Amino acid sequence: MTEKFTLNVNGKTQTVEADPDMPLLYALRNDLGLNNPHFGCGLAQCGACTVHMDGNVIRSCVTPISSVGDTKVVTLAGLGTPEKPHPVQKAYVEEQVPQCGYCINGWVMTAAALLERNKKPTDAQIKDALTGLKCRCGTHMAIMRAVKRAATMMG
Ligand code: FES
Ligand code: FES
C-alpha cells in the first residue's frame, strides 16, 4: 500500500506517494525528475546513485523512502549550478574527467562530502573515501587530479 512522504530535496519540500520500501533513487528520478543520481547496479555496489543525506553519502538505490524522514537530501543538481558550480564540479570540467559520464555523479558527490569534512586530504585519504565507486571507462587518474584540484580551490 502506498503512503505519502514529504522529502526535503535540494532545499525544496516535496511530497511523493510511494510504497514505503521503494528506493529513494526511484522517487528522485521518476517522481521528482532529478536524473543525476543514476541506476547502476541497484545493489549498493557501484555508487552511481549516490546522494547526500544530512551531508553524508548514501546509496539511494538501497535506501527505502520511508527511512529518509526529515533529513536534508542533496543531489548533484543541488550541489552547484552551471553558473556557480561546486569546486569539485569545476575541477571535473577543468580536468576533463568524464568519458561516458555514467558514473560521475557518485564520484563528485563522494568527493564533495570528503572535502567538506577534510579540506586537505592526502592521496591515501582520497582513495579511501572513493573506495567502492566504479568507473568502467578508467577515469581514475583524472578523478584523483580533479579531487586534488578541488581541494586546492577550497583550501
Ligand atoms: S546503483 Fe546504487 S550503488 Fe549501484
Ligand atoms: S566515465 Fe564512463 S563509467 Fe565512468
Keywords:
single chain, 155 residues, alpha+beta, five-stranded mixed sheet, 5 strands, globular, binds FE2/S2 (inorganic) cluster
Would you write up a description of this structure?
- A hairpin with a 2-residue loop joins strand 1 (3-9) and strand 2 (12-18).
- A five-stranded mixed β-sheet has the order 2-1-5-3-4, sandwiched between helices.
- It has helices spanning 24-31, 76-79, 87-94, 104-117, 123-130, 140-154, and strands at 3-9, 12-18, 50-53, 56-59, 72-74.
- The mean pLDDT is 97.
- The chain has 155 residues and is α+β, with helices and mostly antiparallel strands.
- Bound molecules: FE2/S2 (inorganic) cluster (FES) (2 copies).
- One FE2/S2 (inorganic) cluster binds at residues 39-42, 44-49, 59, 61.
- Residues 39-42, 44-49, 59, 61 line the site of one FE2/S2 (inorganic) cluster.
